[in-house]
Amino acid sequence: MDVQVWMASKEVADRLDVHVRTLRNWLDLFVPAKERLKNPQGHYLISEAGFALLKEVKERKDSGNSSLKEIQRQLIDEGRLSEEMLTAEEYASAEETAVALSSGSNLEAGVKEMELAVHETLLKFQQELAQLSSLNNMQSAILQKIADIEEMQESLRLEMRRVTFEMDLMQQRLTRRKERYARHEPRWSLNPFRWFTRSDRAAEQ
After folding, report:
1. What are the tens digits of pLDDT across the range 46-72?
2. Strand arrangement, sheet containing 44-47
3. Where is each HTH merR-type domain found (predicted)?
4. Could you tell me where the beta strands, DSSP code E, fall in the chain?
5. What pLDDT is recorded for position 12?
6. Helices 20-30 and 83-183 meet at what angle, rounded to 10?
7. 6-25 pLDDT tens trace
8. What are the angstrom distances between the C-alpha of 113 and each of 103, 109, 128?
9. Residue 174 to residues 7, 164, 183, 184: CA-CA distances in angstroms?
């Protein structure tokens, strides 16, 4: 009983001297589903028959100018591939086209959504600018009020200085008047009894 041998896609790519991505494209075109499978990690495993087909494709690709589509048709005509491979490949191509169209529609919807978001952002920015303008006007009014208050405070300080100066001047005048009065105070008493007492004392002497 023959044992089926499976090779990892990385090993097959190295043996064919092609990139792993190129190998994955070739799998859809030339290797039937029964000759390839995926392991739990999502990597392809290829049978010996599948490897033989890929090796043939590599040799024909290197020896001439045939495209992959032409090589696939040649293998189908030779009976080495079934017509189902062509159908499967066309189905995969149609599916890829549908995915591309869907991606394009999603991209267009995403662009429209982005344009709407940008428009909303611009509106918010304009509103914020208007609010800032109002705040600037309010700030100007507040600064003007502060300037008026400072001017009133300065006027009040000047008025207080003037009043203080006049009060000091009045105090000085009052002090000088008291001093003059003290120097020229009458020596005779205004009490008439004291006058007679002094006269009697003078006569007795």
Report:
1. 999 999 999 999 999 888 878 888 888
2. 6-8, 44-47, 36-38
3. 7-73
4. 6-8, 36-38, 44-47
5. 92
6. 140
7. 999 999 999 999 999 999 99
8. 15, 6, 22
9. 125, 15, 14, 16
User: What is the fold of 6-81?
Assistant: Multidrug-efflux Transporter Regulator; Chain: A; Domain 2 (1.10.1660)
pLDDT at 92: 57
Domain residue ranges in the chain = 6-81
Query: What is each CA distance from 115 to 102, 108, 118, 121, 122, in whole angstroms?
Result: 20, 10, 5, 10, 10
Listed residue (97, 70, 75, 78) closest to 31, CA to CA: 75
4 CB-near residues (< 8 Å, 6+ apart):
47, 48
Distance CA 50, CA 196 (A): 163
Confidence label for 151 from pLDDT (cuts 50, 70 and 90): confident
Q: How many angstroms separate the CA atoms of 66 and 64, rounded?
A: 6
| Phi, psi (degrees; rounded to nearest 5) at 2 | -75, 140
d(CA 178, CA 189): 19
Read off the pLDDT of residues 73-116 as tens digits, 9 standing for 90 and up. 888 888 888 877 765 555 555 555 655 566 666 667 777 778 87
pLDDT at 179: 82
